[in-house]
Fold this protein.
Amino acid sequence: MNIFAAHCRDIHFFMLKKVIFLGLLLLVFGSTSFAQELKKEWNRNTIPDIEQKMIIQGLIDVQKANPDILVELKYATTDNFMRKNVYEDLTRAYLQPEMAKRLAKAATLLKQSKPGYQLLVYDAARPNSVQYNLWNALDDLKIPAKSKTQYVADPKIGSNHNFGCAVDLTVVDEKGKPLDMGTSFDFFGPLAYPRSEQEMLKKGKLTQKQIENRQILRKVMTQAGFKTNTTEWWHFDGMSKSQARARYGMIK
Ligand SMILES: [Zn+2]
């Protein structure tokens, strides 16, 4: 009887430990996702400091320029080549006013030529402090110092994104699905190079349809006044880096 009672006590103790453990798990993970939801809701209704600083420096929220533009900043999620959110509170896309105006025009041109299709912005203005976050995050990937510029521009020099004069984007169809461009955003290699498209087509690595999809994006962006990039189908510049530096300076 005593043995049986002791056994029951052990079972009760074991069950109690299990309940406490599960409760703790729920508390930690439950509250984390709750906190994340709270943060998202907070961001939807407020303008974080990082964005306020950009507004003070004269930058424009592209969705205010044209609400048809969709935005999903990939560096504000873990869906990027670093698998890390390096943008933190920055979730809206900002550009210099002239660039935002051009992007708004591209969105209108797209709507006219392909009704139902929309521009989806992956990246736009990037304050220099965030450029340092990106640069430093490469160390976690064990990228050797001399190869880092193959992935991210040196923050001391800056990229056109740091001047608010570059935008990374794609096109989504009527269902909101990104068109098949042959590679994902931030794919490193010739398959993403606009200059290598014909070669990739001949080798059977890109299809005619994928090239045509890229051309839909390129057509509206160049008509709106942006320049294409030779190695990234998603990247467009409003002007050269030296012009951007002289006209606007780096975003702080
Ligand atoms: Zn870019």
